[in-house]
Every structure is written in structure tokens, then in C-alpha cells.
Amino acid sequence: MTDKEEAERIMAKYHRDFGTFSQNATRKEYRFVLRYVAGEANRKQREIAGLSNDVDTNKD
Predict the structure, then answer these.
(1) CA 11 to CA 15: how far, in whole Å?
(2) What is the pLDDT of residues 17-59, one digit of tens each?
(3) Is residue 21, in this structure, part of any structural domain at all?
(4) Which domain holds residue 12?
(5) Please, is 35 exposed, middle or buried when counting C-beta atoms within 10 Å of its C-beta (0-12, 13-18, 19+)?
């Protein structure tokens, strides 16, 4: 399962409601989803800025 699929599965578990997610998610789920979102935001910013960085920041 890819990181995106895993993040989607976790958010679907909490009905895609961030309030419910932030209150009820396990520490591991919360950290995983936020790390994925931050990595995607950084990737998009690099893409928009025209920077080419093929390093996957979502991997530990």
C-alpha cells in the first residue's frame, strides 16, 4: 500500500473529519497523516517553484 493510499484509508476511518481525526486517532496514525500531508505540500511547492527534487520526503 502506498503512503497516499494509507493516508486515505486512515482519514476514511475518521470520515475525513479533521476534528474527529485529531481527537481520536492514534499517535502513529496522526503522525503518519500529518507527515504525508507536509511532504505533499513541500513537493507541490517545489513543483510550482520549478525546483527539481526527486527525493521522496515521505520515507523514513
Answers:
(1) 6
(2) 999 999 999 999 999 999 999 999 999 999 999 886 665 556 6
(3) yes
(4) 3-49
(5) middle
